[in-house]
Amino acid sequence: MSTRQDVGLRSFSKLFIGGRWVDPVSEETLSVVSPSSEEVIATVPSASPADVDAAVAAARRAFDDGPWPRMSAAERAGYLSRIRDEVAARVEDMEHAFSAEVGAPAGVSKAFHQNALAAWDDAITVHQRAAFEEKRSWGDGEGVLVREPVGVVAAIIPWNGPVAQASMKYAPALAAGCTVVLKPSPEAPLSTLILAEAIEAAGLPEGVVSMVPAGREVGEHLVRHPDVDKVSFTGSTAAGKRIMSICGERIARVSLELGGKSAAIVADDVPVGDVVPSLVQAGVINSGQVCAALTRVLVPRHRQQEFAEAIAGEMESYSVGSPFEEGTDLGPLVSEQQRERVESYVRLGVEEGARLITGGARPEGLERGWYVAPTLFADVRNDMRIAREEIFGPVMCLIPFDGIDEAVAIANDSDYGLSGAVYAEDTALAERVARQVRTGQICINGWAMRIDQPFGGYKQSGLGREGNLEGLGAFLEYKLIQHS
């Protein structure tokens, strides 16, 4: 049975628009449903198009006439430092809300919120590394290249890591001097609204920051808004294609951090016991609801059964249950719809001829909640849909190869290119393979998501990067002032 620590969570009745809590235009609300108990645990206002218009208007005024973009980068960093301190003071509340609304176990929630703090830490110091003005000269003249804030930013985030995702957008955009309207997902607005309280406490100028939780239609209204200069979106590739097409209608700037089907290449010289714990953790963390998860595991063909047995054993040792129970490794999927999606892919994998090694079913003893046991397929071909499409659940595919060059070819034979890993005792081999795989980040003998370094993907995994100077650059325009 689930340990009920998702009751008594605080609901919200107001929207955060222009740095103030205001009454929403409509009485519509979003019900936050616990994925472990299947019960409504809180409600928040559902922003309407009129609320979005008010937020964008406040951001427009603040950018065009307010002090924020006209401050020095060091002055803005002082505000960001205060936000970081306010976030740190509320991080336990955010972690608890995240576990309740998404189902992430305590350890996962803590890691996500440490990433949020890392994003603010990065933005606080980025002005010390960035050149906002740079002298340029050419044959018969000289000038200054000025990097200016892009303007009003619409930021749209998913439910699988809301405070971390929001921080990855708010922090560099604010450091650049932009004003920001952020739309959280309807599934997970609670932890981000606590973030709004932290931002309010930091005392930014009026209009600089807004937060408008809502569904897809209102998000599209925000993307289409003529006063929005830049859209920064994190979510599915399908939604990213839609947003990119809308931005293309008016040549709005856009950054996209989208899906993944990342590959781990395991060389023949690696002892199975040295890599399996890392592989499984990277494949099913947050119940596989991570864009950078290592869901394709490429192993030498003659060792496939060895790895299948070891990975299955590791998966079966995982405790699946309430995110509030001590020792839980995997919580539920975020929604009934998401569980149905994952289960449909499990059925598809069997139909395609893959060999189901473990999992694929709802764990025994968990009658309520949207749980799926960690799942492993072997004998997977890279042309199978379970190997090509992002499942976003705790499902991993073992794909055998006959040589390391074939492994690289399989890894690159994907519409995606977000993350990846190479496991090899031969470090020169690992380095060579890492350089050949077309992906935004790749780890050697481990796995991690570095959000304080450039994070983003090749191909249909997105456009642009988040984190560090590259993340700051996504919110800047370039102006050349020529001196004659």
Automatic annotation (TrEMBL):
Name the InterPro entries on file.
Ald_DH/histidinol_DH, Ald_DH_C, Ald_DH_CS_CYS, Ald_DH_CS_GLU, Ald_DH_N, Aldehyde_DH_dom
Q: Which residues form the Aldehyde dehydrogenase domain?
A: 21-480
Alphabetized UniProt keyword annotations: Oxidoreductase
| EC number assigned by the record | 1.2.1.3
Catalytic EC class: oxidoreductase
Which reactions are catalysed by this chain? Answer: an aldehyde + NAD(+) + H2O = a carboxylate + NADH + 2 H(+)
Q: Which family does it belong to?
A: Belongs to the aldehyde dehydrogenase family.
Which protein are we looking at? aldehyde dehydrogenase (NAD(+))
Organism, scientific name: Saccharopolyspora ipomoeae
